[in-house]
């Protein structure tokens, strides 16, 4: 079973697994998700303004939430 990129991004973001988030940024086919991850990781590592880091973190989470609403869920047949 393949876990969608949005689920992975949410998990990695909530648990602070930045290395895995970086790998996902490179491998995902969703350009907007990749860009949001890039902006967040850049602000996390290089910004001295904590408000900027929080803003980019929130934007990443908002995008993931938005994308997950429009991603069809897979139904497992029993």
Describe the structure.
The model has no long low-confidence stretch (mean pLDDT 90). This protein is an all-alpha fold. The chain contains four helices and no strands. It is globular, with a radius of gyration of 13 Å. It has helices at 5-14, 18-27, 31-46, 50-69. 72% of the residues lie in helices and 0% in strands. Helix 3 packs antiparallel against helix 4.
Which descriptors would you attach to this protein?
4 helices, 78 residues, 72% helix, mainly alpha
How is the topology of this model organized?
Elements lengths: L4 H10 L3 H10 L3 H16 L3 H20 L9
Helix pairs in contact: 1-2, 1-4, 2-3, 3-4
Query: How much helix, percentage-wise, in residues?
Result: over 70%
**Largest sheet properties:** none
Q: Note the quaternary state here.
A: single chain
Mean pLDDT: 90
SSE string, helices as H and strands as E:
HHHH
Q: How would you classify the helix and strand content by structural class?
A: mainly alpha
Could you tell me the radius of gyration in angstroms?
13 Å
- Approximate strand percentage: under 5%
End-to-end C-alpha gap: 14 Å
Quick structural summary:
With 78 residues, the chain is mainly alpha-helical. It has helices at residues 5-14, 18-27, 31-46, 50-69. The chain is globular.
């Amino acid at each position: 079973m393949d876990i969608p990129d949005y689920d992975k991004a949410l998990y990695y973001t909530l648990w602070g697994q930045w290395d895995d988030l970086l790998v996902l940024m490179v491998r995902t086919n969703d350009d907007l998700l990749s860009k949001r991850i890039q902006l967040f990781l850049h602000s996390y590592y290089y910004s001295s303004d904590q408000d900027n880091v929080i803003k980019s973190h929130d934007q990443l989470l908002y995008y993931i939430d938005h994308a997950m609403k429009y991603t069809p869920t897979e139904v497992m047949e029993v």
